Amino acid sequence: MYYMHIVTRVVVVLVLAGASWWSVKLARADAAFRKQTAEDVAHAVELAPRDTAYLMAHAIQTEYDGGVPTPILERVAQLNPTSSAPRIRLGLAAEIRGDTAAAERWLQEAAHVDRQFETRWTLANFYFRQGRAEEFWTWIRSALEISYADRRLAFDLCRRMSTDDREILTRAIPERRGVVADYLSYLIQKREVTALAPVAMKLATGHTSEDLPLLYVAADTLIYGGDTQRAGELWEALGFGRPAGVFNPDFAALPSGHGFDWRFFAQPGVTHANLDLPSGHRIRLNGQQPESAELLRQVVGGLTAGKSYTLRWEARTQGFADPTGLEWRIAGARAMVAASENWSGAEVGFTADSDRAVLVLAYRRPEGLVRAEGGLDLRRVVAVQP
Fold first, then answer.
1. Which of 1, 12, 71, 323 could serve as a FRET partner for 280 with CA atoms 20 to 30 Å apart?
2. What is the four-CA torsion angle of 189, 190, 195, 197, rounded to 10 degrees?
3. Any domain includes 302
4. What is the pLDDT of residues 262-312, one digit of tens each?
5. Total structural domains within the chain
6. Is 28 inside any structural domain?
C-alpha cells in the first residue's frame, strides 16, 4: 500500500507538471500570436499546431506574402469539419487558379457544413461568374430566404443575371414579406416602373398596414411613370376600388395624399381641415400665403381619351370677394370659384386626352387686390359624362 501511495503521488505530480508545461506552451503561443507579425504567427503555429485560429491567420499571411496557403487551409478544414471559412477560401482560390471543379466542390462543402447566409451568397456569386443560371437562381433565392439588413447587392446581382423582371420575381424573390418589401423599395429607388407593379401587387396581397406607406409610394411612382392602368389595379388591391372619376369627392375620408386621392401641400399661410357635417374640406388663407399657390391636386383616373366630361363642385366662401383668385384646372379647362356665403354649385366641361387627368385647385392673387384672407369649403367634387 505504501508503494502504491508513492506511485499515485508520482503520477499526480507528472500530470500536474505536464499540464503546467502545456499551459505555459499555450501561453507562449498566445503571446506570440498577439504580436501579429508573420514570424510570430508562424511560431504560434509551431507551439500549437492544432489551433485553427492560428492556422487561419498563418494562411492569410502566407497568401499576403505571395505564398500558397492551400496546404494550411486544407489542414484547418481537416481539423475543423464544421467550419465554412477555410472551405470558402479554398474554393475561391481554386476558382482563381481555373480549377472550377475543385472550387465548386469546396464551396458546396462549405454550404453543407454551414447553412448561413455567407455560404449561400458565395455560391450564388460563384455560379453568376460561371454563367450557370439554374444554379444561380437556386442559391440566390436560398440566400435571400435567410438574408437580413441591406439586400441591394443581391438585387443588383439578379438584375445583372437577367433582364426579365418576371424571372427575377418568380425565381429569386422568396415568399418573405421583408424581402418583397425591400425589393419593391429598391425598384422604386431605381425608377423601374415596369418591374415594380407585380412586386407591389405581391406585397399588397399580404394586407399588412405596415406596408401601406411603401405601397402608396409605389402607386405614385406608377402614376407619374405613366402606367395608370397598373396604378389603378394596385389602388384597387389596396381596397379603394378601381379609379372612376374623382376619388373621395366629399372628402369623407381623410385624404391619404397618395395615388388617386387628394393631395395638399404644406405652405405658409394655408391650412387644411376636414368638415364633418356635412362632409367636406375647408381651406383657410391668412393673407400671408404666396401670391400664387396650388391648394389641392388629384390625379383623376378611369377616364376615356377623347370623351367629354363635366367637372362639378359645390363651394362656399368666407371673407372672399369676387374675383376670388380661386380656380379649378383640368385637362386645359379652367373655371373660377365664385364668392358665396352659402353652398352653391358650379361646373366646367373638359375633354380627356388620356385615361387620366390632373385636377388642381389653385389660388392666384387677382391683379390690383391684396392677397385674400378667408376660407373656402368644398364638397361633391365630381367628374361625370354629360
1. 323
2. 20
3. yes
4. 999 889 999 999 998 789 999 999 999 999 999 999 999 999 999 999 999
5. 1
6. no
Query: Could you tell me if residue 198 is inside a domain?
Result: no
Domain with 321 in it = 270-384
Cα–Cα distance list, 286 to 124, 267, 281, 326 (Å): 61, 11, 17, 14
Distances (CA, A) of 130 to 92, 286, 363: 12, 67, 61
Which H helix or E strand runs over 351?
Answer: strand 344-351
- CATH of residue 298: 2.60.120.260
Angle at 57 (CA atoms; ends 55, 63), nearest 5 degrees: 100
Residue 70 lies in a domain: no
Query: For the whole model, what pTM was predicted?
Result: 0.79
User: Residue 272 in contact with residue 363, Cβ under 8 Å?
Assistant: no
Helical axes 85-97 vs 70-79, angle rounded to 10° = 150
Span 55-85, pLDDT tens digits? 666 566 666 655 666 666 667 666 677 788 8
Q: At what angle do helices 2-34 and 52-64 cross, to 10 degrees?
A: 30
Q: State whether residue 288 is helix, strand or coil.
A: coil
Amino acid at position 292, single letter: S
